[in-house]
Each structure stands twice: as structure tokens, then as C-alpha cells.
Amino acid sequence: MSLSSTTLVSGSICPVMIASSYSATTDTMNSVIGTAGCSSKLRVAWGPIHNSITTIATSGNYFPFTQSRLNLPFYDIANPTSIVSKPMKTIKYLDCYSQMFEDQAGIGAITSNKNFSIPVASSHKNVKYVCVIPFANTKTDNYATAITTPQYASPFDSAPWTFQPGSSIRDFQVQVGNKNAFQDVHSYDWVTFLDEFSKLSAVNGDLSREISNGLIGMEKWQTAQRILVANCSRISEADVPQSIKISGTNIATQGTNLLVLVVYERSLELDRTTGEVYRAE
């Protein structure tokens, strides 16, 4: 693409970016927009019909647009004194490890309670919280026509927006290292979910309940979005990798596949002057 002439043929959306020109007569852009920025030398034409028969002069008869938008960006460079004096910056962010456990909490229709104890990971440190999402086991019985098709992969199911219908897990416990997230195993209900979920990114240690809110209500959680959350920020070590294990009892009448999400904090240190990453954990 050349800018040596006043006729420029390009695309239909954001066709070209024209740089600024300076007063020197040797600048190529001066022949296009002029040294004083005079718009009389800048012509904009458009339309799919532009050839030797339909020229720029006649294309306006078919596409009678009389206005165009010319954006001129201005850049204000910030004072780099603070960056040069303290170039190192530490960034902390949350990362997520996920793993699906199939057939661990029952297969197909079950007539008795199914206990499960699953080791999840042993290489993560500074764990913030653990989420367990139940999906229906689709190997037998009511899902006989959908064998090997997960619930969240079926086009006829509302999953993964919703989870296993009728899911019920009792005696739920999350263990990080040798510490338990809950003082005692119990029936995980809406109140437990609300207490654990409201602690995530809460202000004042979740003591200011008037500024905590959520989009999941009790009815939605009990019927469609029965996710289990355990806040592990107080029982995890910041510098020591720890093992994670989840356990519980599936008391529903159907087997459950468990999607486990382990959210942990990571950090990296970079030089803002060069963009080089010095340390990543």
C-alpha cells in the first residue's frame, strides 16, 4: 500500500491509518494531506463499483454519501519518573485448576448412599477456595440413549448453566494438607453455601453483610445450580504446596460426576522498563 498519490484503494472498514506529517517538504504525506493539514487534498471514496467504467467522480452518484469521519489521535506520554525509580512491580492474580471425576459418586441409578473420597491435587499452594460442581452420571438408566455423552455436552440439556437436578451431597468436607475447611461434616445446604460464597473477595472479613450480594438465590441453588463452595484461604499455606482431598456422601437416587475447581493465588514480578518477567510463582 502506497501513500504517494491522492487515490488510495483499500478495504471497507477502517481502511487505512494515516500518520501525522511534519513541515519538511520531503515527507511523503505532505503530498496527500498538505503541510498545513489542509483537507482539500484528502479525498475519501467508497463503494463496490470502482473500475475503469465507474470512477471516483461517478461513484458518488450511486453512493451519495457526503460525509466521512476522520479520527486524529493525540498521545500524552505520562511522566516516567515513578516507573524508572521503582521499575519492579509485583502482580497477584487467581489461577484455576480443574479436573473431572467420573463414576466416583455412583453410576446410573443408585439405591443406597454412595460415599466418595477423592484426592484432587498435591502441587498447589496458597489455595483460596475449592468448588465442586455436580453433573449427572449418564452411563445407564434414564440416560441410556445418551451413553458416553456428558450432561454438559448434550444440546438438549441446560447444563453447564445448570447442574445435576436433584443433587444432594451430605457430609461434605474439603481437606487442605491436614486441616479441614469445616469443623464438622454436615449437610451442605443453602445457608452453608451463602456463608462460604460471601467470604470470597469480601470486605472487612465478611462482617459487613450489607455490601455483600449475589445473583444466585435460594430457589435457583436448591433446584438448578447446586454448587458446593469451600473457602480455604485461612487453612492453606502461602509458600508450601499442600494436598487437597474432597469427601462426602451422595444421597441422591442417581450417580454423580464431580467437576472440581481449585482456585489458588499466583504472582509474578516484572520490570516495567523492559517488560521482562523476573519471577513467576
In a few lines, what is going on in this structure?
With 281 residues, this protein is mainly β. 11% of the residues lie in helices and 31% in strands.
Your description of this structure?
This protein has 281 residues and is mainly β. The protein has two domains: 1-75, no CATH class; 90-270, Adenovirus Type 2 Hexon, domain 4 (Distorted Sandwich), CATH 2.70.9. The protein contains five helices and nine strands, in the order H-H-H-E-E-E-E-E-H-H-E-E-E-E. The strands form two sheets. Strands 1, 3, 6, 8 and 9 form a five-stranded antiparallel beta sheet that branches. The chain has a four-stranded antiparallel beta sheet with strand order 2-7-4-5, with no helix packed on it. A hairpin with a 5-residue loop joins strand 8 and strand 9. The longest helix has 8 residues, at 190-197.
List keywords for this structure.
flat, four-stranded antiparallel sheet, mainly beta, 281 residues
Principal-axes geometry comes out as: flat
**Low-pLDDT runs:** 1-6
Tally of separate domains: 2
Q: What's the CATH architecture of the largest domain?
A: Distorted Sandwich
Percent helix: 10-25%
- Main sheet characteristics: 5 strands, antiparallel
Q: Which CATH top level class of the largest domain fits?
A: Mainly Beta
Q: What's the total count of β strands?
A: 9
The CATH topology label of the largest domain is Adenovirus Type 2 Hexon, domain 4
- What string gives the helices and strands in order? HHHEEEEEHHEEEE
Q: Into which percentage range does the β-strand content fall? A: 25-35%
Class computed from helices, strands and strand pairing? mainly beta
Q: Kindly report the average pLDDT value.
A: 74
Number of helices: 5
* Oligomeric assembly: single chain
Distance between the terminal alpha carbons, to the nearest Å? 45 Å
